[in-house]
Amino acid sequence: MPPPAIQMTGIDKRFGAVHANNAVSMTVEKGTVHGLIGENGAGKSTLMSILYGFYAADSGTIAINGKPSLIRTPADAIHSGIGMVHQHFMLVETFTVVENVMLGAEGGVFTARGASAVRAKLRALSHAYGMDVNPDAVVCELAVGELQRVEILKALVKGADILILDEPTAVLTPGEVDTLFVLLRRLADEGKTIIIVTHKLKEIMAVTDRVSVMRRGAMVGTVETRNTSPADLAELMVGRRVMLTVEKGPANPQGVVLDVKDLTVRDARGTVRLDHATFQVRAGEIVGIAGVSGNGQSELLETIAGIRKPAGGTISLNGTMLDCGGGDDPTALRARGLRHVPEDRHRMGLVKQFEAAESAILGCSDEPGFGAGPFLDRDAVLADCIRKMASFDVRPADPTLRTALFSGGNQQKIVLAREIERDPRLLLIGQPTRGVDIGAIEFIHKRIIALRDAGKAVLLVSTELDEVLALSDRVLVMCGGKITGERRPEDTNEQDMGLLMAGVSSDAPKVAA
Amino acid sequence: MSEAFQLILLAVDSAIRLSVPLLFACLAGLYSERSGVVDIGLEGKMLIGAFAAGAVASLVPNPWLGLLAAVMASVLFALVHGFASISQRGNQIVSGVAINVLASGLTAILGNAWFGQGGRTPQLPSNARFNEITLPFVEAARSVPVLGAIYVEVISGHSVLVYLAMAMVPLTWFVLYRTSWGLRLRAVGENPAAVDTAGLSVARLRYGAVIVAGILCGFGGAYLSIAQSAGFITDMTAGKGFIALAALIFAKWRPLPALGACFLFGLLDAVALRIQGVSFPGIGQVPVQAIQALPYILTVVLLAGFIGKATPPRAVGVPYLKDRS
User: Is residue B46, in this structure, part of any structural domain at all?
Assistant: First the structure.
């Protein structure tokens, strides 16, 4: 038996007070697809960054193909035959594909010879694996799926034998995911070693030979994929049994709360981001919006929330036409019963430097309960936060702790508590469980369903297809700013959704609302 | 030959002379900002360069030694800026402003202390300066209509630094678009993380660019004090570093348009010099101050939107920090 492709032993890494990797060991056999899973902050990205030389470990050793290797920089890693496809693509947007691929390996002082060598290699690889990319295309004009292909090609052209992919499916449609997995399988069969870092259990089950699970900075186990199940993996990740399915009764939709007609949004450059979106959301139902990230969902949410101005179309809330020109700003909309849990809590939902109690009253600080005139009643603010923390099970339940010090799940609960406790008639909620630990996902899903059962309207945007299908009563699919289809979750499947997400229109009749 | 044609030639000739310091500074800014380091300290680097050149050339009557001193002084300041903004990840604007303030104060104080002429350096003799070079065949060219006049008046008769500045434009283009270092430089200004993960050092590339910027600012400063003038005068850069920065934006960080932009500003300067004291029909004599303000007004007008969208290198001004997951 050949030596393992990768043997990491006793890897230890601290960032200040955070013990990101605690004596982690991991062995990956040559020619296999190896999964690495763990919750947010479990230390899997840190471990992979150490393997790629992006961070230096405090202690521990790495052996590549049985040979002890000192990997201190990405250059060392590349030299050892390691390539990495990062979650956020490491591409220069203004460069062509060739320029991106050759960066760092130009083969001389001048670029001309290197460019033609790279071109030849790209041609050979695209022949061998059917990865078609126009070498002269400028990267910013490529679709996300193509960008990922460029990243993989970049690693292969540099001679990678070991390929690390960090959350590779986050930006892909189900169809693209299948194509990627076929490619990874093939690369593994040809003797390359693949490590795939993800939090999606289904994908782990579909593509890997072996899975390593991390929890809170430590390696808790490595198992053969065929001997395990999603439920077992989830238990390893969280440390306790978790519910992976969402339980909900049938919806009981009432009158129309949100009525959107021909809503069109352009960005600063004039590009159409949202194209004549038309739909309704009724009281007592959850309408989900599915789609690959960046297909107009964010613009849709932000426009309804009053943050963006539409280029055309109308929005009615509870039968009243909104003044989208600026009259109905987020404050005015809140008074009308609209609440918004933004997609990116760090950018829009919270102030990380604030105390939890301060983050918990963002946008509500003028309410009479929190003080008089320009003054805040600190005791009231703290008491309110303690109340919210109790009802949303925020841990630690300390209102004076800085927001940044809570875990992703607890931060999200603070935002949810702030918006849901205000008894909205319509809740807009974007990416409710992004970066949230599995235990908290369960809780958040229950609260969203409880809100629906209380007769509220919910518009949910998530790029996690499973989440949208599990929570929604109706699903709208978006692609390229257009709503490409509407389905009931029970009447659809992944292939069908995948086609809609890729913008392939289908002739199936629309489900009546 | 018509008088108007002669007048145009003289204006163009004068514009070239006036645009040279702008061009050096503009290309310096181009290297620095293409690598992702904002360089508001072009002015200060040119000023300290001009002072060093003037001071050294007054002691040792050799313009090349003056130039070397200018480059060394300017690179030293560039390294200070590089240390603050690359190694220490400080605010690049603040660091640049500090460079400008330091250069302005230091040149005045040292100049006064060393030479006692109110901050000036002594008047330089001709052998301590870069003198005008008469290109070959000038006499023969005089007889050729139009082209000959252009050759004699515009192309011939500049100092070596003028020709160097002009040569820097295609050279910069070639370095940027045809060499590996240029590819890396452009990449590090757009997405330093991509450069880092490709196994290259972000800091090394940025220091390289900042040092090149220092060298070019040194050339620009030396041109001011030992080619265009015969000695250093307090604050002799007079905002040229900032005009160069405007030209850089106007040129959208590209070398060939940078030449055009700098020439345009130089031409405006030349025209401003020429129409001082001239009485215009209907308007009368335009105040000197109004004319001197012309390049600045043009800058504001151009930057206010007459140039279309100028997209700076994406990572410019942002210190590179590996994000900690």
Answer: yes
